[in-house]
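FAQ: What does the model actually see?

It sees only this:
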Amino acid sequence: MTKDLEIHIIEIPKIYRLSKKEQKEELIKWIYFFENPENNKVWGYMKKEEPEEIKEAREKLRAISEDEKMQRIVELRQKVL
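And it is asked to produce this:
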């Protein structure tokens, strides 16, 4: 799309059926995050440190989750959609 935006459409069950060679490691990290943002065990399993981008996304998700005003905005937006 642009140099600042990249979009991937992923069918999560299919990504797990790919061989390790076919899987894109960066994408797999985000899939683990989307499946369960609070799961820290994944990084131990992968024997790697959690990427900085995912740490940042997790912190922002927590901040939004704790902010009642933001929760209300999200609820209203979902109703509109």
